[in-house]
């Protein structure tokens, strides 16, 4: 069993990941901006000032790096864009600096990344880990983020990066926002409804991170998405079916979404078709391959 330190442990993925790691018998510790009460050891870091409690690394075998400001939490002002970028690049740089300067036993760092790397809008193109990055804001964020993470590999530590897709969880995130209007009876597909969503059940995503911690052959970039992408319209209908709610309204036009949330609307108005074949070839088996099955599991827990 491994001693695993999680950054961003209070987030959607970090919270569930810690639960599953503990269920599997691993030992877990957290590092963040404030200490957490409870049985799991909790340590502090200050990303802005570039400092981290050195005790956080004591006895740690692997780090799962999930820290980063929520991309969809606020409108993308110039200030917010800077926060989104620097919360990722500076936290990764702090990890690298600490690992370089403090004696430790860390053998692997598994970092979150995002399928935003590929850009959006080319729904008919299948993106693999070898595909070139996009040219939009989010793609640029992910490129810089991954460059900082890659510096950790120069220390002789195994590094894996998981480009996360649209995570389905009953605790929050995209699914909660998509389901809200449907529960109220005013749900509708977004934009054309034909944009592809590369989704993954949160438990499968956490199991991907755990495989990357446990399997020494997992290095480099892997896409953290499910077996098949589906359209926004298919996802909307699936949510309505599982919740037993009607869809009575026409699609919400893209320009309306852009008026409401600004540039951030591109995340949902445009799509990307991302392959998980590399993870499958590494021996990963999905628990949830069908969207209705995944939604039933999440909504009826």
Contiguous helical run count:
10
CATH superfamily: NAD(P)-binding Rossmann-like Domain
DSSP strand tally: 14
Encode the helix/strand succession as letters.
EHEEEEHEEHEEHEEHEEHHHEHH
Backbone CA Rg: 19 Å
CATH architecture descriptor: 3-Layer(aba) Sandwich
Structural summary, described in words:
- By secondary structure, the protein is α/β, with parallel strands linked by helices.
- The protein has a single domain (3-234, 240-299), classed as Rossmann fold.
- The chain is 38% helix and 18% strand.
- It is built from 10 helices and 14 strands.
- The protein has helices at 12-23, 78-101, 137-153, 173-183, 202-214, 232-243, 254-261, 266-269, 277-281, 291-299, and strands at 3-7, 27-32, 42-46, 51-52, 62-65, 108-114, 126-127, 158-164, 166-168, 196-197, 199-201, 220-224, 230-231, 273-274.
- An 8-stranded mixed sheet has the order 4-3-2-1-5-6-8-12, with helices on both faces. The protein has a two-stranded parallel sheet with strand order 7-14. A two-stranded parallel sheet has the order 9-11.
- Helix 1 crosses helix 5.
- The chain is globular.
Topology summary:
Blueprint: E1 3-7, H1 12-23, E2 27-32, E3 42-46, E4 51-52, E5 62-65, H2 78-101, E6 108-114, E7 126-127, H3 137-153, E8 158-164, E9 166-168, H4 173-183, E10 196-197, E11 199-201, H5 202-214, E12 220-224, E13 230-231, H6 232-243, H7 254-261, H8 266-269, E14 273-274, H9 277-281, H10 291-299
Parallel strand pairs: 1-2, 1-5, 2-3, 5-6, 6-8, 7-14, 8-12, 9-11
Antiparallel strand pairs: 3-4, 10-13
Helix pairs in contact: 1-5, 2-3, 4-6, 6-10
